[in-house]
Queue: 4 jobs
Job 1
Amino acid sequence: MLKRLVKRWRRDAGGGAHFEYVPEGWTRETTDSLVKGWNVAAVVDAQLARLDAWRKSFASSAPLGMSDASRPATSGEIATHNTAVSFAYVVALAARNKDRLSLLDWGGGVGQYCFAAEAAAPGVAIDYHCKEVPVQCNHGRRILPHATFYTDDAQFAHRRFDLVFASGALHYAQDWQAVLGRLADATGSHLYVTRLPVVFESESFVYLQRAYAHGYDTEYLGWALNRSAFLAAAESSGLKLVREFLLNESAHINNAPEDPQSRGFLFKRKCPRPPTPDR
């Protein structure tokens, strides 16, 4: 009963803030039962409810991220548009002179970006792979039966892809440096990390996001990463920065030393390697 009351207070009254600075870091997961992470059915339900509009936006002439271009765009739609157009640029670059593009989408939900990749590179066959939590993979396999879904990084360790992509995902990994290293190992050429919250003056810190407003019925922890520290880790993983992207997305984190700005980073391996041949 008490847990339900606390949850309702956080959801309806905000429990204070949508985003909250967590000075104790990732130990919050072990002390707060409302921090359930991403393997939650409500997250999938919310994503499925938006999937049809997402698919249709790529089949129409409207700005990507908008269902109706005859009205002014909201700030959220502008951010979605910038994210989608930046992704399309990256796919077009990675698919240049190719008939087939192998793509690993790390943290890709139910496979939404498969449709974006296909629209960005018409005439190129997209060999789509996605790593996600089990509840997402179960639905993704039904929506995209031709795609491959993984629930653990070890399942794609033997593969190498033309393009590896992580959108709004890497900063939710507690050991993000290790994940970044595995993603660098998985790409033969390009790695694109986007919707990454970065700070410029502060050291990296942990924050809590209450996602009830999105219909997710969960709370989760994430990193606001110091930009210089992130780029240094990428350099150590054998990556060279090719392009940085502005996404028009930011968040106010209550009591945080600095509010992060969401950015995208396109890297290329310093020593490119061929992708794994199709079996």
Job 2
Amino acid sequence: MYDIIIIGGGPAGLTAGIYASRFMLRVLLIAEIIGGQAASTDLVENYPGFPEGISGPELTEKMLRQARRFGVDVIHERVVELKNAASNPKIVKTETGKHEAAAIIVATGGEPQKLKIAGERRLSGKGVSYCVSCDGPLFRNKEVIVVGGGDRAISGALFLSQLAKKVTLIHRREGLRAAEILEKRALVNKKIEFIRSAAATEVIGSGTVEKVKIKNVRSGEEKYISAQGIFILIGTKPNTNFLRETISCSKDGYIVTNEDLMASESGVYACGDCRQGSLHQIVAAAAEGTIAASAAYKYMSKERHTGTEAQRNKS
């Protein structure tokens, strides 16, 4: 039995593991893939300590090495259920077995939002992508489309402009939602074309992406844009399906917590992008991982003290 099980291997989960293990607790981290959404970020420029920036995969790999150095056990599996959340021990079921712990930290992050348009699913992996750093190099000297208007979309377009022949960015609003510094860089980039107040409505291609139909959301006018790839970067949704019947979540699936990041059941904590109120930033996720680990340690210390007092009273 572990003291703490951390579900999720992004910056929030890895940081929670580092801090929990330094409290001399026995910690297990379970994640299908290490790095989370951060691992799909080509360049992280706003994480303290890296003035020249650092790639998402490199940053999360460093976090993983640090967690393992302090004794965190890591297994690569998919969690399918959280049981006995209100009891002790709490049980985490994976596809191959189960693990027990006194406290749980949920740091499952999010997964890319889909457009849910015609052709998207059929051509996924055949020109439709949700990860610039993963698939961007496949589109060297080709024409690509980026859908979205936030930080991830704009930074993705900037990265792709170094590889692709042309980048067309489609955003359904007139104004962008990205950081001003990113927006300024993109606006002066001659390889990036902006199409605003428009939505992608269909991905077309016989075997791979050939073109994308877009529609002006104001006039209703439709047209086709030739492209060999489309990167859909419109945000994420929380990976919390496995525990929504166990832990209180918002209508959108985000875990509801108090100021100590404790969820609706004592001893269960949430941090990072799966938590309601998260800033969806790597540095914020790491900070929340620290808070969750500290709160879980205090919870366990209190439970142990209560158990010891009860044992003394019996004798």
Job 3
Amino acid sequence: MKRKFSDDATMDEIMHGSPAAIRVVLQRGMLCVGCPIASFHTVSDAAREHHLDEEKLSYDLRTAIARTDSD
């Protein structure tokens, strides 16, 4: 089953859907893991909060999730 996410998915939903997403978040020094705001922030919100490129973050999350799905 493919674990894709929509643009309005929260960071919490994305991380719960795929441990690979957690790895991406931690590698970028983001504090989403365990953060109470993660259940409200979308990728766009989180990227803005952490001064990251939204498109790159979204791409990296989707790529990591897709790799996990293909294993």
Job 4
Amino acid sequence: MSIRTKLQNKEHVIEALRRAKFKFPGRQKIHISKKWGFTKFSADEFEDMVAEKRLIPDGCGVKYIRTRGPLDKWRALHS
């Protein structure tokens, strides 16, 4: 089970999952990810990359803009 929430609601979500895990048989663990949302980037990397315009929002995910490739494509994205 995966949950996304604001940082201010973190304690409430942890408590809700702690109570809910007793409803399922077997051993259940609560894992808190260091990633930003459902992306593959950590929270610190994500904020830095967005500031540098290396990540572009794309629906519920993001597009990673590589540093390689044609210069015209880079100029079009950063203009």
